[in-house]
């Protein structure tokens, strides 16, 4: 507790930094995964390759990825951009498959009905496919959110501050409270963002509650 | 691009293919660690997941646990466990099991849960016991989704088993750490390529197994939709 | 796959503004946004991802601030491969370093071992645009460390004494030691002692100490400045044949560090002894104080 009494301000700063590394990576992951997932769903031939490819991206170990990203994208090794790009690679890879599943989960009868009542194919994506895919997309988003928040800690390996810093520092100094604070704060932040995703998902699909209410 | 060529050259060097600590030895160690971890995690997670999916009990707790476990940084857990268990393979194996469990658990319970309620009711009506319902109805129907969980867990473990080298002389991670610390990035990238190749191999094998299970689960002309992905638990709606 | 890569590339273009947005927070400050040295802005001081290095950097920072200079702290930057390019590019201006390892980074095959030789070779090897200021008396260098029981059992004081040890010795250290002069190969060449090797990637940290105490390894490479040596009853073996390079604390400075600042830092180095360093490290580990407090207390006790 000695440690915490000196360091709580720092913990807050690191939590804030951690958040600002996580959020862009999560948003970018979704922005990439949704169109790629839709493509994979609409073109099953291409889809298999896309899905397997994304699984493979996820299998690149973090350490080399942090070295490869600056080489490929021309960003400095020790920068927020390196971490955010690396986490986006993982996040998008993780979410592409659910995104494809999400569009597959949309009942084709609904789509046909929408065309029958006069929706143009172009409108279909925004007015029918996307809203109906939201529940499954949100499930995927939640996994990406939680795993991204956990992965941000690898930034400590290249000197980008996050809650992972508590981890390396506490470990070197043998302060268990510091290591535990790093771990717990990471998990709490992940679960808090996860809760926000859940609420956002509910807000975006008001009809589901109506249906469930009626069914109950 | 240059770096990639250097990595290829590193891999092509015959000197790296014989003796202790050579590529084949590290690959075998890596596979061995992966098999142990996925096996141990499956023994714990799949029966638990099936039980939760079948009874519907403890669902919220399992979802919460799987969510929290996903957020735990593996390197952090590994070092804490290392302080407790000492160096060697024990700590990495345990940390990797924690990594593998959420996907397996989610696959097992969402697979069983997704089995149509009318099917299980029908089975009950013709006098099947609960045990028979689980083993003869739910497990075969849930197999594609459960295998999807195995597939996701295996890929995660293959990629993360590199961390075993943090405190043990084992696995392809040795090339990564050695390369990083001595700035031999060709060696590091070569190690990463080997990891990705192994992942590719398992991705192909397990995807095939999953398709086969999906065909078995939906016989006689029923149109098979792509097996839904179990890695992503549905929220407690 | 290719398509995904392209998409990721597009995303990268999108990420940059977002990343910059995150950087409105001083903690996440991007290296590129720091003042590019020399133009009268604050001096940017960095430190390794190592608590002891952070304390020394904080001492530099506060000493400069006490003389009315403006500094900016960029602490806990990972390893040399991450921060040295930034020093060379002028994005960092001042960095506490260690003579031996830094020399070995630039000249892996250097023959220099003794304190003055290492310093001279290092001054020579330092690239244009950078220079090393005076080295401190304080050292923090790698050493072979064994447990007290092991040392007593075999009557060990120097590394030479290992030749009489009649059981298998396993050395635990970061993986790069396996191929470096201070690993098993160098030990065999210089001292004729054969030892096995186990990689432990925590740089002589708690995992290494635990492995020693558990008897999983018999010998480890640990920094002499680490308070855990005394705390855990460990013994550092004397290196009579120069396997390890002398390693003094030395400030690495860029062109932006002017004469006045250099004088201030040199007076800090002149005051910093090995005992001081051990005490500073000990306060960080035992009293769990932040680097700023430890540095402030130490500076208050000096007459600079």
TrEMBL record, chain A:
Keywords recorded for this protein, A-Z: Membrane, Transmembrane, Transmembrane helix, Transport
Domain of life, per lineage: Bacteria
Protein name per the record: ABC transporter permease
Major localization class: membrane
CDD domains: TM_PBP2
Organism annotation: Zhihengliuella salsuginis
Bilayer topology term: Multi-pass membrane protein
UniProt-listed Gene3D superfamilies: MetI-like
Source lineage: Bacteria, Bacillati, Actinomycetota, Actinomycetes, Micrococcales
Cellular compartment(s): Cell membrane; Membrane
TrEMBL record, chain B:
SUPFAM superfamilies membership: MetI-like
Span of domain ABC transmembrane type-1: 31-206
Keyword Cytoplasm recorded: no
PROSITE patterns, per the entry: ABC_TM1
Coiled-coil features, chain-numbered ranges: none
Region (Disordered): 217-237
Superkingdom to which the source organism belongs: Bacteria
Main location group: membrane
Topology within the bilayer: Multi-pass membrane protein
Transmembrane segments: 30-52, 64-87, 93-112, 141-168, 188-209
Pfam families listed in its UniProt record: BPD_transp_1 (PF00528)
InterPro entries the UniProt entry points to: ABC_transp_perm/SBD, MetI-like, MetI-like_sf
This protein's UniProt keywords: Membrane, Transmembrane, Transmembrane helix, Transport
Subcellular location: Cell membrane; Membrane
Family: Belongs to the binding-protein-dependent transport system permease family.
Name of the protein in question: ABC transporter permease
Source organism phylogeny: Bacteria, Bacillati, Actinomycetota, Actinomycetes, Micrococcales
UniProtKB/TrEMBL annotation, chain C:
Keywords: Signal
Keyword Signal among UniProt keywords: yes
Keyword hit for Protein biosynthesis: no
Signal peptide bounds: 1-19
Superkingdom per UniProt: Bacteria
Pfam families xrefs: OpuAC
ABC-type glycine betaine transport system substrate-binding domain residues: 42-300
Name listed for the protein in its UniProt record: Glycine/betaine ABC transporter permease
Lineage: Bacteria, Bacillati, Actinomycetota, Actinomycetes, Micrococcales
């Amino acid at each position: 507790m000695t440690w915490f009494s000196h360091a709580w301000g720092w913990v807050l700063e690191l939590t804030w930094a951690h958040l600002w590394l996580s959020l862009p990576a999560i948003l970018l992951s979704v922005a990439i995964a949704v169109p790629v997932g839709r493509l994979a769903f609409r073109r099953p031939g291409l889809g298999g390759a896309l899905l397997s490819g994304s699984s493979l991206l996820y299998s690149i170990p973090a350490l080399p990825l942090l070295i490869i990203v600056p080489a490929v994208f021309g960003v400095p090794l020790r920068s927020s951009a390196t971490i955010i790009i690396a986490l986006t690679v993982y996040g998008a890879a993780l979410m592409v498959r659910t995104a494809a599943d999400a569009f597959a989960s949309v009942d084709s009868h609904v789509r046909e009905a929408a065309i029958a009542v006069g929706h143009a194919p172009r409108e279909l994506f925004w007015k029918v496919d996307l809203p109906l895919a939201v529940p499954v997309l949100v499930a995927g988003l939640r996994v990406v959110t939680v795993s991204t928040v956990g992965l941000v800690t690898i930034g400590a390996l290249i000197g980008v501050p996050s809650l992972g810093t508590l981890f390396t520092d506490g470990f070197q100094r043998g302060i268990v409270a510091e290591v535990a604070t790093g771990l717990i704060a990471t998990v709490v932040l992940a679960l808090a963002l996860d809760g926000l995703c859940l609420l956002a998902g509910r807000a975006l699909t008001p009809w589901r509650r109506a249906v469930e209410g009626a069914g109950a | 691009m240059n770096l990639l060529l250097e990595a290829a050259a590193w891999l092509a060097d015959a000197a790296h293919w014989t003796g202790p600590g050579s590529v084949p030895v590290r690959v075998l160690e890596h596979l061995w660690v992966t098999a142990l971890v996925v096996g141990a995690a499956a023994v714990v997670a799949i029966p638990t997941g099936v039980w939760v999916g079948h009874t519907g009990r403890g669902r919220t707790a399992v979802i919460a646990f799987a969510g929290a476990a996903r957020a735990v940084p593996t390197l952090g857990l590994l070092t804490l466990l290392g302080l407790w268990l000492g160096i060697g393979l024990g700590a990495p194996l345990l940390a990797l099991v924690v990594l593998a469990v959420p996907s397996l658990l989610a696959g097992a319970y969402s697979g069983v849960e997704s089995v149509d309620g009318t099917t299980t009711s029908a089975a009950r009506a013709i006098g099947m016991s609960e045990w028979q319902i689980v083993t003869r109805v739910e497990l075969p129907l849930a197999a594609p989704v459960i295998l999807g969980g195995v597939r996701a867990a295996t890929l995660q473990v293959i990629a993360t088993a590199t961390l075993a080298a943090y405190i043990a002389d084992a696995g392809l991670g040795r090339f990564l750490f050695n390369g990083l610390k001595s700035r031999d990035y060709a060696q590091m990238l070569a190690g990463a390529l080997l990891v990705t190749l192994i992942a590719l191999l398992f991705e192909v094998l397990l995807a095939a197994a999953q398709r086969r299970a999906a065909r078995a689960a939906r016989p006689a002309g029923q149109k098979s939709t792509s097996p839904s992905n179990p890695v992503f638990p549905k929220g407690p709606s | 796959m290719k398509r995904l890569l392209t998409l990721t590339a597009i995303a990268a273009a999108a990420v940059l503004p977002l990343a910059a947005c995150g950087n409105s927070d001083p903690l996440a400050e991007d290296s590129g946004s720091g003042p590019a040295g020399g133009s009268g802005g604050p001096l940017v001081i960095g430190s390794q991802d190592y608590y002891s290095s952070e304390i020394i950097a904080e001492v530099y920072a506060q000493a400069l601030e006490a003389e009315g200079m403006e500094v900016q702290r960029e602490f806990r930057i990972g390893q040399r491969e991450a921060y040295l390019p930034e020093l060379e590019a002028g994005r960092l201006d001042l960095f506490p370093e260690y003579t031996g390892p830094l020399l070995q980074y630039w000249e892996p095959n250097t023959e220099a071992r003794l304190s003055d030789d290492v310093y001279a070779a290092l001054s020579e090897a330092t690239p244009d645009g950078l220079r090393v200021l005076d080295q401190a008396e304080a050292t923090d260098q790698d050493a072979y460390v064994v447990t007290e029981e092991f040392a007593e059992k075999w009557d060990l004081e120097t590394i030479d004494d290992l030749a009489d040890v009649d059981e298998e010795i396993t050395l635990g250290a970061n993986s790069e030691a396996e191929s470096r002069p201070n690993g098993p190969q160098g030990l065999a060449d210089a001292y004729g002692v054969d030892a096995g090797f186990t990689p432990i990637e925590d740089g002589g940290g708690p995992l290494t100490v635990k492995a020693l105490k558990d008897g999983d390894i018999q010998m480890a490479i640990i920094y002499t400045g680490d308070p855990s040596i005394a705390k855990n009853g460990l013994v550092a073996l004397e290196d009579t044949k120069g396997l390890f390079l002398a390693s003094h604390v030395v400030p690495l400075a860029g062109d932006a560090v002017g004469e006045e600042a250099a004088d201030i830092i040199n007076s800090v180095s002149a005051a910093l002894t090995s005992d001081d360093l051990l005490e500073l490290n000990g306060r960080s580990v035992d009293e769990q104080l932040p680097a700023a407090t430890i540095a402030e207390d130490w500076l208050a006790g000096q007459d600079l």
